Records
---
Amino acid sequence: MIAKEIMTRDVIKIANSASIGEAVSLLKEHTISGLPVVDREDHLVGVITGGDVLRSVQQRAQKVYHTLLGPTHVIIDENVWRQDRDQLLKQSVAKMMSRSPITVTPDTPVGEIVDLMLRQSIRRVFVIEHSRMIGVVTRNDIVRWLVRRVGTP
């Protein structure tokens, strides 16, 4: 089995000029955890995930206190979070996206994709052909494929 046989072809994507708020809305609306980010020519330039958004919120709102003999204490300042929330949602996706999305070709074997996902601790790989994104393979795509094969000789 290879990537093009199990990939999702109708990929929900977002422009690098879109706002974080738009990305969060798409993630919520489609119940997905990440979006490929494309430029004006529809080339894959990055990926934005719910984890990226959460990390940004955490970095802005946390205060870290170190003690000489005890553990480090992290306190989330709710006031800072509320103040920064609207500014964060207005920022462009390009400022927060990961710029090195992991890609495979349509002929990449599923076993290699699984290995790549586990080694890189990622949930999706983008399928690229002739410099264009033609699909995405997610962990869920692989699990669905495995479930269909259970009991099949």
---
Amino acid sequence: MKIYIKYMVSQRCKMAVKEVLKGMGLHFVFVDLGVVETMEELSVEQRQQLKSTLLELGLELMEDKKAELAQQVKKLILDVIYHSEEEMKVSFTTYLSEQTGQDYPYLANLFLETQGVTIQQFMILHKVERVKELIIYGELSISEITWKMNYSSVAHLSNQFKKITGLTPTHFRQLKEKRLQTMDEVVSSTVPNP
């Protein structure tokens, strides 16, 4: 049985949900961001217990089909942004339609209705967050990040990044480096000389 959970967006959330399920004696096939598949059907009592336990954790059991579909779209988006290493061979709108079995215009309207933002706005916000992570890690150049995140050009990435953060990716990287340099200076000034 598939169960959709709202606000489940991190590894910590996944671990917490696994503990809840184990505590309830439920067996699961998988626990992923926003979705859980259990081996057994939940009784009304089990569903209510799961709902109240999740609320205590700041998570919400989703009851309506539209919200569940929106959650599925969010999960697909986050998987592509955070976990996909390969370039998409079809447009993202086609990918979402194929994965959900729904027309993209329906998905777009439903997502806006249930989430309060468009699919594109949600994607851009998370892509920029992922770009910030990649810049902080410092392992890739801006050009490599552009390719990895499926942007058409460095200019396209820079424009979206600046609209969201107010900074260019290069300026963001310089601030990170300056902050690290300042931290190194603080540490070296507090360590006594031998």
